[in-house]
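RECORD TYPE: inverse folding
INPUT: structure tokens
STRUCTURE:
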């Protein structure tokens, strides 16, 4: 009985987590309204300002958290690197106290 409950719990958790997986971006590597695609450096900037952009995007339909017209992996890498620098890396990261 206990084993079936554990297995059922694991299956439900897997289904819930699978529902959170992102879909494909059909606009990747296509130009936006301005005729450009966002590359690494714009991804770095978007990642860096992501906390502010997220808050604004909750209340505004004109601001998006992530640029869908991007160059693909390089934009994604810049975005993650920028977000990491701001959120936990070098800028706001805390140093552990010794001793």
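DESIGNED SEQUENCE:
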């Amino acid at each position: 009985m206990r084993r079936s409950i554990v297995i059922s719990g694991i299956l439900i958790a897997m289904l819930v987590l699978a529902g959170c997986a992102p879909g494909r971006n059909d606009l990747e590597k296509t130009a936006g309204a301005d005729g450009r695609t966002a590359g690494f450096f714009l991804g770095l900037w978007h990642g860096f300002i992501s906390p502010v952009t997220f808050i604004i995007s909750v209340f505004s339909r004109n601001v998006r958290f992530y640029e869908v017209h991007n160059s693909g992996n390089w934009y994604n890498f810049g975005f993650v690197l920028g977000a990491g620098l701001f959120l936990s890396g070098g800028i706001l990261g805390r140093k552990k106290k010794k001793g």
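NOTES: Residues 35-99 form one domain.
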